[in-house]
Write a structure and sequence with these properties.
Layout: E1 4-9, H1 15-23, E2 41-47, E3 50-56, H2 68-81, E4 84-90, H3 97-109, E5 113-118, H4 125-132, E6 141-142, H5 151-159, H6 163-169, E7 181-187, H7 193-201, E8 219-225, E9 228-234, H8 247-262, E10 265-271, H9 278-290, E11 293-299, H10 306-319, E12 327-330, H11 342-353, H12 359-372, E13 377-378, E14 381-382, E15 384-392, E16 397-403, H13 410-424, E17 432-437, H14 446-467
Parallel strand pairs: 1-3, 1-4, 4-5, 5-6, 7-9, 7-10, 10-11, 11-12, 16-17
Antiparallel strand pairs: 2-3, 8-9, 13-14, 15-16
Helix pairs in contact: 12-13
Amino acid sequence: MIPLIALVGRPNVGKSTLFNRLTRSRDAIVAEFAGLTRDRQYGQGAVGDFDYIVVDTGGLTGGDQGIDGPMADQARVAIAEANLVLFMVDARAGRTAADESIAESLRRQGKATQLVCNKIDGQNPDYIDAEFSSLGLGSAVPISASHGTGVSRLVDEFIAGHEAILRAIGAPEAEIADPGIKIAVVGRPNVGKSTLVNRLLGEERVVVFDEAGTTRDSVYIPFERDGKRYTLIDTAGVRRRGKVSQKVEKFSIVKTLAAIQDANVVILMLDARDGVVEQDLHLLGHVMDAGRALVIAVNKWDGTTPDQKNTVRRELERRLRFIDFANIHYISARHGSGVGNLYDSIHKAYAAATRELKTNQLNEILQDAVREHQPPVVRGRRIKLRYAHLGGHNPPIIVIHGNQTEAVPDSYRRYLEHRFRDALGMEGTPIRFEFVTSSNPYKGKVNKLTDRQLARKRRLMSYVKKKR
């Protein structure tokens, strides 16, 4: 496996900023907000031909109260699996008791550790050495992660300096694994997304806490099950726009919407106790706009009464009628009931979204549909639909050519969608249609031909008159 480098330290020392620098990405949310990162976030970095994985972690406060406990557990897992630890401290704040506690823990574990001192702008280098030398981890590498100062030196001299150790442990020439089916788990805050992710993985991979908004970033987690590769994406809960007040939450929502675009299949989680609320439909609209394959998971099903179950089923049938292609599962993420059945729907939805469709098959379906129910007459002329072909995947795009196609009404589009879906057995994915009006090769030439004929007729008449 490729060597792993963990970024650890107190909250708000700049770990996520350095993560983005080392991975040359903007995957980690960055803000002047302590405790922003909570889950482990992985990304790929490189020094020349030497590849490595960087993992961002939540801040270690030294306390295990409330959400700090699960966050610390995530950081400890990252340290345990890391081949090199970059221990970050804050030059402005100076050495703290939490820094000393983290340093002692790293020394006990015997991890290869490099001390990194961030936020050095305007600081005296001699002060930095004197302040942090007592941590017993050698000289600190001075950097400014936000401005990039010293980051190149950190990468070239210190990360590359551990290359021999990392190469002996890992296999940097190995390729990054295929992400497989990318599955985004989305929903309102506190519907159980992180609990479902952990249940699907079979481990406590992301922080779960009984508090709305625990997850703030989109966390990508590759894994393998029964010989198949997947990447689960745990996302932040999306509330109504009027209730979004913190800047951090706005960034989280942007990352969630980006995760929907990046996914192959989206699991939309609903809370059985609340039924279908407006925000669920709003999120569903984003999934449909992205054209992603869809699976519905109604969570906390075990905590509802029989009457509530019947009410929820009726409400789902009434309000989600427009996505009748999506499979609905009633689950308990906490206890695991019904969770295993999600995989079958995920596979079917992914297969349908990426399926290769033959042109002759699409044309046969189109001809049968038109034969049974012809398109309407518009402006005295009937719409002609002549042939179809595949225009793209995820979602499947079927391109139909004909005359006056811009006038095809929505009702006839829905008719075609149901005909194609039934004939192809497409389950779990929307189907998009693009209509193209064929150009008339003789358009504009009729009058010119008539003019030539008239001219020829005049010449002929003139010749006849002269002869007479």
